[in-house]
TrEMBL record:
Region described as Disordered: 295-315
Gene Ontology terms for molecular function: glucan endo-1,3-beta-D-glucosidase activity
Gene3D superfamilies on file: Glycosidases
Major site of localization recorded for this protein: other
Name of the protein this chain belongs to: Cell wall glucanase (Scw4)
Domain of life from the UniProt record: Eukaryota
């Protein structure tokens, strides 16, 4: 009877303040063995770790000798249904993948003509530029259709710079007035211009000799500096011409070269980026270490094969991805081109692809049907 009473007392003690009912730590209790009279009762209060925290005597309190030994508490109810394996919900954090295209990246070439070769209106140009706003700047080639003023106006609205230029040396240097007028229309603000180019592939096409182009670049720089423009002035030609004529680089504020792996019949789209990067490094080496910017590079999505270089939408995607990867640390790369140039015509060197270089994943398909109307 005594053992029963004592056990009952200790069990009650276990559920007392020493062991709150919502505490699930497994503790110990102690059985007290008394050398005392049977009428007397002693209750020992212990905590969850088995330490005595109090002794309660009832009736008389004779001297008692205690012998204690730890005894395991009865097993608590199965806590699997009380405490889940994961008592706190898992915190899920979305870690975005590294996006090398975050923010404006690279330049993109753009021609403001309809499929019939007529001039686009400002509203049409503005709509096109809106779809290109994830780039850093727009490269245009000439001054016709008042494109310098219209493209710079639209680009200002969308936070882009403009790589402008005169396409050839006809009416040069008077042709520079169109560029100056674009800045004047913006209150004399030249900050919109990324670069101003004097000619595009003039030596490669046989239109001008290298010395003539060098003189034109130097003349243009003097005129533009006098008008308030302090940015780069260059001439653009193919990478092979730049390697043969480093004086073109010397006259420019940086070396500006067009380079397309597609025109090398041994190239695959996966190597387009490394191909262009290698040519840029070679040009810089030939120019005494001067910076080189690849001012055109892309891949057609339709046309005829050039050996291993095959035009297709899938190959274009591979080539553009290769270019972005190879030039990840050089935001001045200029991708070719924003949209298909349906107004162009082919020759024996273009493999039926001249109209189909528009990058297909630009965010929308070119509105071909609208252009054809």
């Amino acid at each position: 009877m005594r053992l029963k009473v004592n056990l009952l007392a200790l069990l009650l003690a276990y559920r007392s303040a020493a062991h709150p009912h919502d505490t699930f730590s497994v503790g110990h209790r102690r059985n007290a063995e008394h050398d005392v009279k049977p009428k007397e009762q002693v209750i020992v209060w212990v905590d969850h770790a088995g330490h005595t925290i109090g002794i309660e005597h009832k009736h008389q309190t004779p001297t008692a000798t205690f012998k204690s030994s730890p005894t395991e508490l009865p097993l608590l109810p199965n806590t699997d249904n009380i405490i889940p394996d994961n008592p706190l919900p898992k915190l899920t954090v979305e870690v975005p993948e590294l996006n090398t295209n975050r923010g404006p990246r690279f330049g993109i070439t753009y021609s403001p003509y309809t499929s019939h070769g007529t001039c686009k209106t400002f509203d049409q140009i503005n709509q096109d530029i809106e779809h290109l706003r994830h780039h850093a700047f727009i490269r245009i080639y000439g001054i016709d259709c008042d494109q310098t003023k219209l493209v710079t106006q639209a680009s200002r609205q969308h936070g882009l710079k403009v790589f402008a230029g005169v396409f050839d040396l006809h009416n040069f240097p008077d042709s520079l007035h169109y560029i100056r007028d674009a800045a004047t229309a913006a209150g004399g603000d030249w900050s919109i211009f990324h670069t101003i180019a004097i000619g595009n592939e003039l030596v490669n096409k046989g239109q001008n000799k290298p010395a003539d182009v060098v003189n034109a670049v130097n003349t243009a720089r003097g005129i533009l500096r006098g008008a308030g423009y302090q940015g780069p002035v260059v001439t653009v030609d193919t990478f092979s011409v730049m390697l043969q004529h480093p004086e073109l680089c010397a006259a420019s504020d940086y070396c500006a070269a067009n380079c397309h792996a597609f025109f090398d019949n041994n190239q695959l789209p996966e190597t387009a980026g490394e191909y262009a990067l290698d040519k840029a490094r070679r040009i810089s080496a030939a120019a005494g270490g001067k910076k080189t910017v690849i001012t055109e590079s892309g891949w057609p999505h339709a046309g005829q094969p050039n050996g291993r270089a095959v035009p297709s939408p899938e190959n274009q995607k591979k080539a553009i991805a290769s270019l972005r990867k190879a030039f990840a640390d050089d935001p001045d790369l200029v991708l070719f081109t924003a949209f298909d140039d349906l107004w162009k015509s082919d020759n024996q060197w273009t493999f039926g692809a001249e109209r189909f270089w528009g990058i297909q994943d630009m965010g929308r398909e070119r509105e071909r049907e609208q252009d054809r109307e």
